[in-house]
Design goal:
alpha/beta, Spore Coat Polysaccharide Biosynthesis Protein SpsA, Chain A, two-stranded antiparallel ribbon, 7 helices, 24% strand, binds cytidine-5'-monophosphate
Amino acid sequence: MRYALVVPAAGSGRRFGASVLRKQYEPLAGATVIEHALAPFLADARCHRVVVAIAADDTAWPHVAARCGERGTCPIGAVTGGAERAESVLRALIALRSGLDDDEWVLVHDAARPCIARAEIDALIAAALPHPVGALLAVPVADTLKRAAVTGTTAVARTEGRESLWRALTPQMFRLGALAGALEAAQAASRQPTDESQAMEWQGYAPLLVPGDVRNIKVTTPADLALADAILQRNRTTRQTP
Ligand code: C5P
């Protein structure tokens, strides 16, 4: 099989705090966050094309793209992302659609997830290939979940049952045409899915949950960056890093 990779990297990083750097360009374990996020895909012969969605005012990407280009032969393109993550992904898919058939596989992976391991990518692909819709990495919820009474307040309204609840990670893997169609339908309905699976679910599909690794964290705050650094340093001998 072969797949194209879409990497949404056009977020403002508001939750990361005021910084001149977008969070994906923060230094991390000898490279940057996004270079770690891309590394196992660039080392995968099945990955034949990469499209990264970047912000319109992003001046750091060309330098990173040049470094990534030195590490493999896979063409890496960029599109300007949108105001929401789903729009950024859709723009990248539209770019892919000009050269690829609708039944090509696409993996979507957040630029902010630098600890993705090759073994997780392999598990996702193995599970998604025979599945009629596609699949996503996810981990079962381990903590007890509380719902606050009012959004933004801290009084507990109730405890949510955690049975059957999973946290969705990336990468997520779907067919190019089906995913683009699902994101277009969401956009037409003014709905904002927070991952690809949600857009597919709104179309009536039931993507497959594939157990992922809790170390595949999303860097959202500076504390996450320290955690990612520890994970990458510890796994350097056993996991692929740039
Ligand atoms: O904001 P969040 O942490 O959910 O972002 C996940 C990924 O989506 C990040 O890599 C971010 O850069 C990307 N994103 C995007 N376009 C947006 C918002 C987020 O590509 N408008």
